[in-house]
Amino acid sequence: METFFVIVNIALIFALIFVLIRLQQKHVSFSKRVFVGLGLGVLLGVYLQFAFGTDSSITAQTTDWYNIAGRGYVRLLMMIVIPLIMVSIIQSIINLEKTSELGKVSLWIIGVLVGTTAIAALVGIGSSFLFDLDASQIEAGQAEESRGLYLEERLTEVQDMSTPQKILEFIPANPFLDMTGDRATSTIAVVIFSAFIGIAVLGVRRKKPEQAEMFVKIVNSFYAVVMRIVTLVLRLTPIGILGLMAVTVAKTDIAGILELGKFVLASYVALGVMFILHLLLIGIFGLNPFTYLRKVLPVLSFAFTSRSSAGTIPLNISAQKNSLGVEEGVANMSASFGATIGQNGCAGIYPAMLAVMIAPSVGIDPLSPGFLLQLVLIVAISSFGVAGVGGGATFAALIVLSSMNLPVALAGLLISVEPLIDMGRTALNVNGAMTSGTLTSRVMKTLNLERFNDKEAVEKDIAL
Hints:
Layout: H1 2-25, H2 30-52, H3 57-94, H4 100-130, H5 142-159, H6 163-168, H7 175-178, H8 186-207, H9 209-234, H10 237-250, H11 254-259, H12 261-284, H13 289-306, H14 313-324, H15 328-338, H16 344-358, H17 369-385, H18 393-403, H19 418-443, H20 449-453, H21 460-463
GO cellular component, one term: plasma membrane
Keywords: Amino-acid transport, Membrane, Transmembrane, Transmembrane helix, Transport
Transmembrane segments: 6-23, 35-52, 72-94, 106-131, 184-204, 225-245, 265-287, 337-359, 371-389
């Protein structure tokens, strides 16, 4: 009987995929198809949870099959991340009129990312106080206790690395190893290696223009092929979101959400406030925040469902270039840096909220100005080096809590709601990267305002 229900469930997702394909054939816009896939995924997940339960064998077998559509799509995106970054960065640099522009662009992007992370820490602190969060009010179950022990074990790994050592991890020693994504800092390492190639081509162009021109033609050919692969993969976005959302909803622990509901609510209030601050920054720089919001929503929807900042890089770059009018080099660098540096949700809000929650349990006054100033500074600094130890929000929390001499095991108390909160955190991380790219392009006067303000300027190739 179990096999029968699994086959029926597989038939259901095939039917919904067929609906999405028909919408594409009828030339329904890319954005609308993304949201249709999101909605259908939620409905499918709700059906699985209420019909068979979260932990049933039928649900487990069904979601294994659904992951072919969801996680399979994420794998395809990860497949093209490194090639896309390499050829895009190299091509962008060889098209620069002045090499000094590269340094200015990098400083602006990193400055916006780290600066907004410091602001995110303040927002997280404020939300913790608003909802009166206290870690001592949370009871730990077996899974949470195991998670706490795991975090304590990994703390040694974090403490063994100083901030300079974490930054040193960004420098590639073996670029071919980094092309495999072997390290947490592989993305940034590939960016740095690609930048060296691009700068070297500029030097060769001055002394041996013929050889440089030949290399440029090769890069342009590779770029055309890679971008075509990107387009083919991105067309699968609605189907990927359908699979991801169905699995997420089907496996969501509702009991855990209800038990830790106040923390979940406080987290999403902080994420919402920070998102609004991003839009205010867009407005302060003379751009229409509502136009920006409309154009980035499909990308944020995928980030929300996939919980992968790195996996969202191709969508991020494409939306910045084609929808927002961000200059190509800026879009490539902001999306790449934003996947590992200054993540507003994972490295900003989350560690700050945990620190304020945990402080009273060890006799520290979280309202102390000294404590708050130290917390914000540590969050900002560690957000730059967090990729040096990998692990996203968990390791960002480890770095901040250990630096503040707070017990890290208490972070394990939130394991049951971690996936739900991580969805919002990832969306905010990606929006921070897109905001940094848009603002940097605006400052550098390379933003295509006509494209930005054109409400019909969308990813036309993907929408076909």
